[in-house]
Amino acid sequence: MARIDIVMPQMGESIAEGTLSRWLKKPGDAVKRDEALFEISTDKVDAEIPSPSAGILVEILVVEGQTVPVQAIVARLETDAAAAVVVTDAPAPVEAPAAAVLPGTTAPAPEPVAAPAPVPAASAPVASVPAANSYEDRLRTKSSPLVRKIAAEHGVEIAGINGSGIAGRVTRRDILAHLEPAPAEQPAAPELVDVEAAPPAPLPASVAVAAASHGDLQSAQVWPGDVVQPMSKIRRLTSDHMAQAVRVAAHVTSFFEIDLTRVARIRAGMRKEFEQQNGQKLTFLPFIVQAVIAQLKRHPMMNAAVNGTDLIHRKQYNIGIAVSLDPTGLIVPVVKRADDLSLGGLTKAINDLAARARSKGLKPDEVTQATFTITNPGVFGSLMGTPIIPVGTTAILGLGAIEKRPKVITGPDGEDTIAIRTCAYFSISFDHKVVDGADADRFMADLKRSLETLPEPTA
User: Residues 169, 289: one domain?
Assistant: First the structure.
């Protein structure tokens, strides 16, 4: 008899919990190795999690929609079919194993963490203060740094607030409710609401200010005739992640127009043979990724990260590629050690990650550890933009639409002529805490030069 515990995977260094959004198997089902067991949602990924082994799913411990800490046991698998005893009762409390240690901390003693029960707005249970550096304390601190900022601004002790999150974690909603008592409980609204009555009273001033400052609540009022629709899980997570990214980086964006005529000519010349050999469509993106990696090696600050007052100089070149998940949101799978890949290898890796992102087939480690990110809104016709820098990195490159434009070209004889050129606007958003404008512009100038003078491929 060999029973295997299935745990909530860690989706990144800064992620302390995940939401089990849907079970794909039920107790008693036979499961193959690497077959999808359940779907999860975090602020980095909405993905299917495969089974680590073949066997029988004998017990489910976490219900759909429940949020639990990373490494918490969510189900159990029996590899010996003859010994399988299926449990169909309601899930038991979730355990948080001692192995769930967050970066920069020491392991606490093993301590069970019960799954949180919903707390009515009107109730006021006595707060339980976790021990310093306990699993709950680190979970609260790591997953909600904004709570500490709001608390500091208002002189509030977090330990004295009743938390509704995992292990009593105090959320932004909890602290804002503490700052301004919530209004009387209202009947739950349906998923879609046609607003016919008069608009509700505005939020109390202190709550509205805090909401506008910290992004936890919207201050917009609902008007008669409006339709109110709650955000989807992935939209809420994306919203939180983008708001955090804007808060932690000093954003600056610079724009360059790049002539891709030479890249287009080289691509056209090798496209047929390349696609026959690799079975992959050859786009402009692998050429751009190769050029970016070459310039990251020349300008290492663009590949750096910040840890407090320290700079981390990354020696890996892991390129995140933003993928649209229309209509649910976006995700950024990561091509690990992209500098080791050829043009064909990059093409296969990018296409494979994009396809599996759209089919929820990404693995947890395929959406983490990016050192630089590229986003390509140009495929939708956008000419230029100011993308937000992902947390944990220093810069993101935005690619505008690639199109033919009339340009003034100076010939060998010094005469100016107008020619049709294939061009695009590239933008670089960078963290001014780490990179000065001159350094970012030098990176872009070198990237422009390398793409406009791309050498012909060798035989």
Answer: no
Asked if 374 and 338 count as a contact pair (C-beta separation under 8 A), the reply is no
Among 169, 121, 176, CA closest to 143: 169
27: nearest Cα among 73, 87, 84: 87
User: Which among 111, 82, 75, 112 has a CA at the least distance from the CA of 95?
Assistant: 112
Q: How many domains does the chain have?
A: 3
User: Are residues 403 and 315 located together in one domain of the fold?
Assistant: yes
- Domain hosting 169: range is 135-229
Q: Which residue in the list 43, 436, 439, 441 is annotated as catalytic?
A: 436
Q: Cα–Cα distance between 427 and 108 in angstroms, integer?
A: 45
Nearest to 94 by CA among 114, 78, 108: 114
Does the pTM surpass 0.85? The reply is: no
Answer yes or no: do 414 and 358 share one domain.
yes
Q: Is 432 a catalytic residue?
A: yes
State the residue for tokens 């010996």.
80
List the chain residues with pLDDT less than 50: 92-136, 138-144, 182-190, 193-217, 459
43 is a catalytic site residue: no
Domain contains 371: yes
Question: Domain containing 448 — which CATH number?
Answer: 3.30.559.10
Q: Does the residue 41 lie in any domain?
A: yes
Q: Are the C-beta atoms of 216 and 173 separated by less than 8 Å?
A: yes
* 233's tokens: 């899980």
* Burial per residue of 63-82, b for 16 or more beta-carbon CB atoms within 10 angstroms, e otherwise: eeebbbbbbbbbbbbbbeee
Tell me the CB-side half-sphere exposure of residue 360, using CA atoms within 13 A.
20
Specify if 326 maps to a domain: yes
Give pLDDT tens digits for 186-243: 444 445 544 444 444 444 443 344 444 444 445 688 899 999 888 877 777 778 878 8
> Cα(405)–Cα(91) distance, rounded to whole angstroms?
62
- How much is the CA Rg of the chain, to the nearest whole Å? 26
Residue 345's nearest CA partner among 319, 368, 327, 308 is 319
Catalytic residue among 34, 80, 365, 432: 432
Task: Give the tens place of pLDDT for each residue, 286-315.
Answer: 999 999 999 999 999 999 999 888 999 999
Mark whether 268 and 194 lie in a shared domain. Answer: no
My answer on whether 224 and 270 are in the same domain is: no
- Tell me the C-alpha to C-alpha distance, in Å, between residue 423 and each of 106, 383, 448: 52, 10, 11
**CA–CA separation, 293 vs 446, rounded Å?**
12
Please say whether the dihedral angle defined by the alpha carbons of residues 342, 348, 351 and 353, taken in this order, is positive or negative: negative
